[in-house]
Amino acid sequence: MTYSPLHPPPSRFRWTVTGVLVLVTLINFFDRAAIAYAVPSLRTEFHLDPSTTGWVLGAFGIGYLISNPVCGHLIDRFGVRPVLTITILLWALFMGQMAAASTVAGLITARLLLGMGEGGSFPSISGVARSWLPPGERAIAIGLAMAAVPLSSAIGGPLIAALIGAFGWRAAYWTLAAFTLVWAAFWFVLYRDDPARSRHVNAAELELIRAAREDPAPTGTDAKAALRMVLSNRTILANNASAMVAAFFLFFFITWLPAYLKTAHGMSLQQVGNFSALAFGIATVTCVLAGVLSDRILARTGRLRSARSLPIAAALAPAGLALVPLGLGAPLWLALVCLTICLAVILTVFPAQITINVDVLPAAAALSHGFYAACVAISGILAPVVAGYIAEITGGFAQTFFLMAALGVLGTGVVLAFHRPDEDRREGLTP
After folding, report:
1. Are 402 and 217 in contact (CB under 8 A)?
2. pLDDT of 225-264, one tens digit each?
3. What percent of the residues of the chain are helix, what percent strand, and what percent coil, each to the nearest 5?
4. In whole angstroms, how far apart are CA 168 and each of 10, 66, 255, 259, 403?
5. Any idea which fold 13-212+220-424 has?
6. Model pTM?
7. Residue 362 carries which DSSP code?
8. What is the pLDDT of residues 199-219, one digit of tens each?
9. Cβ distance 355 to 138 under 8 Å?
């Protein structure tokens, strides 16, 4: 196509919106990075044993589990902008409550409410991708957004470790609460649910977004029909099962990794922060590359099975098997290598997993993502609690690493057997 002053090329504001997605995920996961580095201080101040520590860490997942499907339905019905704005304000409030906690019960309650407040963030990713991005750009954009998960630990690890070391864990949470409030205002001013209502989108970009979009724009959904589709679709169910496996890995790392490296290998908090910066930094790169590769495979083959399912299957088992040496008592250097490999591989599944919600059920993408995130939240409860009990019973994490290896192999089997997005795609809300 030839462009001229009267017919300029498409603007690229959809990539600015993608940048906003990266920011919301980054801020969302700064809190989850903070709690891992606060654990030693919390255990000392509140006299926590490993199992109680696990419940403090897992309480977040309970709130997250409750709120994600609800927020997903509200986003499908009312749009991302109002729902995410409200939830951002709530999670800033509950970060402040976390900083002010003075009892174990208050700590657990604050973590529970914080999980509920953050429940709008993940479904928003699918809502934005559906409205703003053509199918061939979704996995790239979601890969960039999900890269903020490891990036939050890569950046936040050293910063939060230093902040806690200098001013204490409460100061870290007050700082995060203030930063979140600033970002809420930025989000509300910048974002619009309909690209046509954004003054930053020109006619050519709007045409590109709408022409390439195969699925209907959200105009409010039949809640019962959407729920039936989410709960009965074979690929969505297999995708959610694989999400629980990947999330078990992720939540173990962002809650117990500093404690493991400190107790098993004698690393200081600052040393753990420096290692996290390296390992999660590498995982940030692999997550982005996974999204790029997924969309390129889709463009070349036209098959969602090849572009989404097979990369997920190819990552889960190797990530789990990389942890076997840790269960066998690997020395520090080998443990760090294996952890880095596992993180780099397991983070590659998230762009394809999340994009599947938009690919397979576009008319109920945010609700589907809400249930996906609820499954992630279940592992967010189980991983810290199970690891805490195992540590208390056995005195270490070896059995947890063997469990994760088995889960990785099982996850690959489930995806290969049941993840069939080309066959299970539904454009509307009817079977």
Report:
1. no
2. 778 888 889 999 999 999 999 999 998 988 888 889 988 8
3. 85, 0, 15
4. 48, 30, 18, 17, 34
5. Growth Hormone; Chain: A; (1.20.1250)
6. 0.75
7. G
8. 888 888 888 777 755 544 444
9. yes
